[in-house]
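User: My instructor asked us to take a sequence, write out its structure as tokens, and then describe one feature of it. I'm not sure where to start. Here is the sequence I was given:
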Amino acid sequence: MRVMILGLLILASGTIITYVTQYMTTYADSTLHVATDLAFATTVVSNGVGIVAALYAIGRVLLINCRPLLNYAVSEYKESSSLCQISMYLSNGAEL
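Assistant: Let's start with the prediction itself. The structure tokens for your sequence are:
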């Protein structure tokens, strides 16, 4: 039961973060009346932080030797996620 709740929390947080990062530019431009360049920069920075965090997480997974978990993630999302492909490339386990 605890695993199911954690899984749902992970899915919910991923959905919320996606909506926030995708609509941040529109919100900043139309509601906050921020300059368009600055509004776009917030989206670029938040996505950049997300990429760095994902690469850090991949490094931690490789450090604690959870390669089967990484292999499963890549096999599930290989066609849709370039980050998973990069992670397998970094762990010397798959072709790009």
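For the description part of your assignment, you could build on this observation: The two ends are 37 Å apart (CA to CA). Try explaining in your own words what that tells you about the chain.
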